[in-house]
Amino acid sequence: MQLREALGDLPETVFADLLEDDDAYLLVVDLPGATAETVDVTVEGGRLTIEARREKSVPREFRYLTEERALFLDAELPLPPDATGAHAEGSIERGVLTLTLPKSTAEGGQRIPIS
């Protein structure tokens, strides 16, 4: 499956799990520091796009000498042919993004609201 292979191409700092049942796919992605306000997820043309920005605060008296954690994720992933954005649901809690993508024969092209 192309999606499973594409998940392996994500940056090493991004961990993802893909689950499936008879009605939907469940994608769980670790995005430490990301919130519902800093994550945008869309499904269009058989592709899932995840854009995430991590919020980090630095005390005023300090400055970065080195920074190992990326601030952005911009990933475009192929969806299985039977996955759709219609009625998809998403949530993020403590930096863990959970997306439920229903299976359907209809093509989706929708933004997935993240709560």
The major sheet is characterized as: 4 strands, antiparallel
Counted beta strands:
8
| Structural class category | mainly beta
- What portion of the residues fall into strands of 2 or more residues? 35-45%
Our Rg estimate from Cα atoms comes to 15 Å
The H/E string reads HEEEEEEEE
Structure commentary:
There is one protein chain. Helix content is 5%, strand content 42%. With 115 residues, it is mainly beta. Strand 3 (39-44) and strand 4 form a beta hairpin. It is elongated, with a radius of gyration of 15 Å. It starts with a helix and ends with a strand.
What does this entry show, briefly?
With 115 residues, the protein is mostly beta strands. Helices cover 5% and strands 42% of the residues.
Topology (elements, then pairings):
Elements: H1 2-7, E1 16-20, E2 24-30, E3 39-44, E4 47-53, E5 72-78, E6 89-93, E7 96-102, E8 109-112
Antiparallel strand pairs: 1-2, 2-7, 3-4, 3-8, 4-5, 6-7
Could you list some keywords that capture this structure?
115 residues, mainly beta, 4-stranded antiparallel beta sheet, 1 helix, elongated
